């Protein structure tokens, strides 16, 4: 006679309901957050819990479906989320020709003056730019890419959008490293879920979002402040530890060595980025620039009193109905520069004073220099809006700024910014 228990001999043991629920949640996290394939999930489970050695790919699929159907995984759909604007091919071609760019992305949306008074409208603009920039990054990031990021809203939204896109539609791009280009400033971005909510958007935060968009990306957090008390302290911080990732001396040495990042270096080995995603800001007294918003925050205390005096000085020339220009100081990777319009319109004595403040601030920043960006083969700028046009134009006019070579290779911006950049280029051509 056949024993009843013999009929169950080949069956897998049933999971306890509580254990099943926890296991389903764990699998859902590995699928949606860690971006693991079925093989990798099996390996992880069997490695951490040998008792689960009987689980196969079909069980993984059933448990993941159980997590979706039972409410363990919840999907939030926001019908008010920013739409992805169309691209304007004609303006893109004109920008490439006018400023000798490698690529241009122009969003069919406006960076209008109301963004000066409406932070939410300004944030929607940056979200739209971030979405288009994420699509572009998705086509150019390659195996073993070393991607470096600056702070900024548009950079943050580009990284977040790429992560969201890759949750269900990931590309098998492996060996990516993601690192920051500057220290943290405790900057925040609006949350669309509540007008009072904020989210961190420092370079380290953006880097974490971007790293999660690729299967096995290595995230290098600098975990440094944006500024220190003196130039000597800045030099010390860049001499060892995570600061070496943005040290000018280390970059120059690596470039001389051929930047051997393909030789599988140890995690402590510094590599010069093969690509950089950066923003450009306009430091205007009435803008939402992080140096303005955080003027009296502890993170910027090391830049006083020069920062406050600089803001007072530029306010004399950029405010009021009779202003000759609207942006005297811009920033690239949190490093400041005096714009072309300030050089043109400010009296020599005031211009000299402004340059003194800018240089004094830059000496204390933990951020890459403009010269370091020469070493990066692909620098993508995502920036737009009324507060930044003159700063963007100054960076694109690299010869007039006295730089040895172009810093920006690709530009992602909005329609109105593109139009005004082209107008400025035509006007300068007529005068010359």
Structure description:
This protein is α/β, with parallel strands linked by helices and 432 residues long. It folds into 2 domains: 16-69, no CATH class; 89-431, 3-Layer(aba) Sandwich (Rossmann fold). It is 41% helix and 12% strand. The chain has 15 helices and 12 strands. The chain has helices spanning 17-32, 38-48, 57-69, 89-99, 119-140, 153-168, 203-211, 231-237, 248-256, 290-293, 306-318, 340-345, 348-362, 389-396, 415-431, and strands at 103-107, 146-149, 177-180, 188-191, 194-200, 218-220, 275-278, 280-282, 329-332, 335-338, 378-382, 410-414. Strands 1-12-11-7-2-3-6 form a 7-stranded parallel β-sheet. Strands 8-9-10 form a 3-stranded antiparallel β-sheet. Helix 11 (306-318) runs antiparallel to helix 13 (348-362). Residues 1-10 and 190-197 have low confidence and may be disordered.
List strands and helices in order, with pairings.
Elements: H1 17-32, H2 38-48, H3 57-69, H4 89-99, E1 103-107, H5 119-140, E2 146-149, H6 153-168, E3 177-180, E4 188-191, E5 194-200, H7 203-211, E6 218-220, H8 231-237, H9 248-256, E7 275-278, E8 280-282, H10 290-293, H11 306-318, E9 329-332, E10 335-338, H12 340-345, H13 348-362, E11 378-382, H14 389-396, E12 410-414, H15 415-431
Parallel strand pairs: 1-12, 2-3, 2-7, 3-6, 7-11, 11-12
Antiparallel strand pairs: 4-5, 8-9, 9-10
CATH class of the largest domain: Alpha Beta
Quote the CATH topology of the largest domain. Rossmann fold
Radius of gyration from the alpha-carbon trace, in angstroms: 25 Å
| Spatial shape | elongated
Total strands: 12
State the helical fraction.
40-55%
Percentage of residues in DSSP E strands? 5-15%
CATH-scheme architecture of the largest domain: 3-Layer(aba) Sandwich
The arrangement of helices and strands along the chain is HHHHEHEHEEEHEHHEEHHEEHHEHEH
Give me the secondary-structure category: alpha/beta
Q: Tell me about the biggest sheet?
A: 7 strands, parallel
Whole-number mean pLDDT: 84
Spatial gap, N to C terminus: 104 Å
Q: What is the number of domains?
A: 2
Instruction: Give the uncertain stretches in residue-range form.
Output: 1-10, 190-197
Tally of helical segments: 15
Give the strand order of the largest sheet, numbering strands 1, 2, ... along the chain: 1-12-11-7-2-3-6
């Amino acid at each position: 006679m056949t024993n009843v228990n013999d009929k169950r001999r080949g069956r897998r043991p049933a999971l306890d309901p509580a254990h099943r629920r926890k296991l389903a949640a764990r699998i859902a996290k590995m699928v949606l957050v860690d971006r693991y394939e079925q093989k990798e999930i099996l390996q992880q489970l069997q490695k951490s819990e040998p008792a689960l050695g009987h689980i196969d790919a079909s069980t993984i699929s059933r448990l993941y479906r159980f997590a979706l159907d039972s409410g363990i995984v919840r999907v939030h759909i926001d019908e008010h989320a920013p739409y992805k604007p169309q691209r304007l091919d004609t303006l893109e071609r004109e920008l490439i020709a006018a400023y000798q760019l490698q690529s241009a992305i122009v969003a069919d949306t406006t960076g209008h003056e109301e963004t000066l008074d409406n932070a939410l409208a300004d944030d929607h603009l940056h979200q739209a730019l971030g979405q288009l920039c994420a699509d572009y990054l998705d086509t150019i990031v390659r195996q073993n890419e070393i991607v470096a990021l600056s702070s900024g809203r548009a950079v943050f939204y580009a990284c977040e959008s790429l992560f969201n896109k890759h949750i269900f539609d990931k590309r098998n791009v492996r060996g990516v490293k993601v690192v920051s280009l500057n220290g943290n400033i405790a900057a925040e971005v609006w949350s669309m879920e509540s007008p009072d909510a904020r989210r961190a958007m420092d370079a380290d935060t953006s880097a974490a979002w971007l790293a999660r968009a690729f299967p096995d990306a290595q995230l290098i957090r600098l975990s440094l402040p944006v500024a220190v008390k003196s130039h000597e302290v800045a030099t010390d911080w860049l001499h060892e530890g995570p600061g070496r990732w943005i040290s000018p001396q280390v970059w120059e040495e690596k470039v001389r060595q051929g930047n051997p990042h393909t030789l599988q270096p140890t995690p402590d080995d510094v590599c010069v980025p093969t690509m950089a995603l950066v923003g450009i800001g306009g430091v205007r007294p009435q803008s939402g620039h992080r140096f303005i918003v955080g003027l009296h925050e502890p993170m910027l205390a090391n830049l006083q009193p020069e920062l406050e005096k600089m803001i007072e000085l530029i306010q004399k020339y950029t405010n009021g109905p009779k202003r000759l220009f609207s942006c005297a100081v811009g920033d690239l990777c949190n490093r400041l520069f005096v714009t072309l319009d300030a050089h043109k319109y400010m009296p020599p004595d005031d211009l000299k004073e402004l340059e003194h403040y800018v240089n004094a601030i830059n000496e204390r920043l933990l951020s890459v220099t403009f010269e370091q960006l020469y070493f990066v083969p692909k620098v993508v700028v995502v920036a737009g809006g009324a507060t930044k046009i003159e700063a963007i134009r100054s960076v694109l006019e690299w010869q007039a700024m006295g730089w040895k070579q172009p810093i920006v290779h690709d530009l992602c911006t909005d329609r109105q910014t593109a139009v005004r950049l082209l107008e400025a280029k035509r006007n300068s051509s007529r005068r010359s």
